[in-house]
C-alpha cells in the first residue's frame, strides 16, 4: 500500500469537506469559533488546523451563507457566535442532496 | 466593544500571550480599525475559551499548546487579511486600499495578476505626467507619419518622421485617462467580486 498517497488523499478530502461539515454543524445551532472546532472534532474526528477556521468563516460570511454576532459574556471576553443565514440554509439543502447522490454513486462503484 | 485582555497568573504566560497578540496586531495593521479589532477579539476569545476548556496542566504549557494549534499569526491571518482588505478596497475608491489589496491577493490567481498589470499601467500614466514636465520633447503621444507610433517616451527625432501631437494637452489627457482607467479597474474588481459570490 502507498501510505503517503492515502494520507495525502485523506487530507485533501478533509480540506475539501470542511466547509460542508461546518455548515452542517451550524444547521441547528449557533456556535462560537472554539466551540465550532470542538464540534467538528467530536462529530468527525477531523483535527481542524484551528487557525484555518476563521478565514473560512469569513469567506462564508462574504458569501452570505453565515452571519455572526458578538455576545458579551460575564467573563468580560465576548464570544462571536456564528449561525446560518436563510441563504445558507437553502444552499445547504442543495449541498446535502448532492452529497446523498454522490454517496449512492460511490457506493455503487466500490461495492 | 471594549477589548479586554486575558489575565494570567504566571509572568511567562503573560509575556507569551502579549507577544502573540502583538503579532496579531502587526499582521492586521493594514486593515481598518474595525476589522483589526474584530480579528483581535476573535483570537483573544479563542485563546480564552481554549484555556477554560483545558483546565488541567501548567498554565504556560497549555497556553503554548493552544497557540501552537492556532498557528503563527502571520501564516494564519494571511488569507483572512487578504480577503478583508479586498472587501475594504471595493467598498471605497481609495487607491491605496486597492493597491494593498491587490498585493495581498497577488498569489490568489491569474485574474489578480491582470488587475495588477492594469494598475501598473495606471501608475505609468501618473509617471508620464511628471516625465512630460521634466522632458517635454520626448514624452507625449507620438505619430509616425500619419499612424499612431507610441504613447510615452521616445528617443526618435522629428526627422525620423515621428512627431508629437498633443503638446501640453498631454497632461490633461493623461489625467482623464487616469480617472477613466481607475474607475474601470475599480468597477471590474467589484464585478469580479459579484461574479465570485454567484
Q: What can be said about this structure in brief?
A:
The complex is a heterodimer of chains A (111) and B (198). By secondary structure, chain A is of the alpha+beta class.
Features:
heterodimer; A: 111 residues; alpha+beta; three-stranded antiparallel beta sheet; 4 helices; B: 198 residues; mainly alpha; 7 helices; 8% strand
Task: Explain this structure.
The complex is a heterodimer of chains A (111) and B (198). Chain A has a 3-stranded antiparallel sheet. Chain A has 111 residues and is an alpha+beta fold. In chain A, 63% of the residues lie in helices and 13% in strands. The two termini of chain A are 20 Å apart. The model of chain A has no long low-confidence stretch (mean pLDDT 92). In chain A, strand 2 and strand 3 form a beta hairpin. By secondary structure, chain B is mainly alpha-helical. Chain B is built from 7 helices and 3 strands, in the order ααααααβββα. Chain B has a 3-stranded antiparallel sheet with strand order 2-1-3. In chain B, helix 1 runs parallel beside helix 3 and helix 6 packs antiparallel against helix 7. The chains are: A alpha+beta (111), B mainly alpha (198).
Give a count of the beta strands of chain B, DSSP E runs of length 2 or more: 3
Strand sequence of the main sheet of chain B, in spatial order? 2-1-3
The percentage of residues in β strands of chain B lies in 5-15%
Number of helices of chain B: 7
Strand % of chain A is 5-15%
- Strand ordering within the main sheet of chain A: 1-3-2
Structural class of chain A: alpha+beta
| Radius of gyration of CA atoms of chain A, rounded to a whole number | 16 Å
Biggest sheet of chain B, in brief? 3 strands, antiparallel
